[in-house]
Every structure is written in C-alpha cells, then in structure tokens.
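Data deposition worksheet. Section B asks for the primary sequence of the deposited chain exactly as it was used as input, without tags or linkers unless they were present during the calculation. Section C holds the resulting structure in token form. Section D is free text for depositor observations; keep each observation to a single sentence. Incomplete worksheets are returned to the depositor.
Section A, Depositor: J.P.
Section B:
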Amino acid sequence: MGCYECCMRCLGGVPYVSLVATLLCFSGIALFCGCGHQALTESERLIENYFARDHQDYITLAYLIEYFQYVIYVLASFFFLYCIVLLAEGFYTTSAVRQSFGEFRSTVCGRCLSTTFIVITYVLVVVWLLVFSLSAIPVYFFYNMANTCQTINFLSETPSSISQLCIDARQYGLLPWDAVPGKVCGMTLSNVCKTREFFLTYDLYIAAFAGAGMTVLALLTYTVSTTYNFAVLRYLGRKGISPRC
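Section C:
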C-alpha cells in the first residue's frame, strides 16, 4: 500500500462529525465555565458595593455563588471526559477499525453501549437547554440595567424625572425584600454603568450565554452522531457497512 492510499484510509476513518462536535463542546464548556465563574465573582462584588450595605443581606447569594462555582468545576471535568469518550466511540465505529480488526460484527454489548450514549446525551441536551435558558437571566438583568442607564443619560437635564429610574435587585431575587437599599437609582445608577466592573460582568455573562448555546449545539450533534452509529450497528453491521459519524 502506497503513502497516498494509506493517508486516504486514515482520513476515511476519521469521525468528522464527532470531531467537530468535540471541538465545539470543548469551546462551549470553556466559555461557559471560565466566563461564568468570573462573572459570578464580579456579580458578588457589584451587589456588595452598590446594592447592599449589610453583609447579611447578600450572604445567601454569596453562598449560592460559591456553590455554583464548585458546580462549574465539576461540569468542566465531566464534559472533558465525556466528550473524549464520545469521540473515542466515534473513532471505534468507523471503517478504519473494521479494516484493522477484520470483519465488523455488531455485538449486544456494542449496541447496549451505543444505546447508553444516546440516552445520556439526550438527557444532557435537555439539561443544557435548561442551563441555556437560565443563563439568559443575568444577561437580561444587565441589558435592562444598560438600557436604563442610557435613558438616564438622555434625560440628564431633568433631574426630577431620572431619580425615579431605578434597577431593583430584589425584583430579580438577588436580594431579600428587606435588603437596604436593594436598588440603585438616577445618576448613581448611571455612574455604576460606567464602571469597569459593570462592563466586565456584562461581557462575561454574554460569553457564558454563548458558551451554553455552543454546548447545546455540540450535544445535539453528538445525539445525531450516536443515533446514526447505533442504527448502523443494529441494522447494517452484519452487511459490512460501518458508520462514519
């Protein structure tokens, strides 16, 4: 076998769909976990500096932020390993493996393993659709805050009207209703929107939201890939046709 034929054989056995999904999943998880972790830290700083005077008012929020940051560590580790396993499963079910190890056979164990991957990936898709939806909440909060600040700057010549324009963190469940002050209004809010902390936190939440979307897309791609692999293992394995997803 010449060098060209050998290269074509190797390239023909690459599970391109699984490879693209793995890269997309790694990128999405890195964005979501990295940016989300830092965004939570910056959010706590914003709440502490501008929305709450007493530490007891946001101590529950601080515990939740710490808890979610530990969850992020677990998510990053789990998805790194799971994506590697799915990619390995994609390589294993290509024609390159069949050509290397002889006649391809669809075993009960192989079908069971493929079914397990399909079920787990489907559950993860549902979970991450929920995560994707929830990650839009802080983006919506900061979007409203930025729009309110733009309105304040536009009406800066009428101080009596801008004093009624506020962002109340208690309405979003970030603070208890008895927290003081719990909200920021007028030119104070406008000054908050000009700080580095605000822009950094806003951008980090947008990046985390985009990362969650990329992860959902990667998991949907994995679902298609694993389902295709299972179908070929189940129905076409004995005919010598092997999957390439």
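Section D:
Strands lie at 166-168, 183-185.
Confidence is low (pLDDT under 50) at residues 96-105, 240-245.
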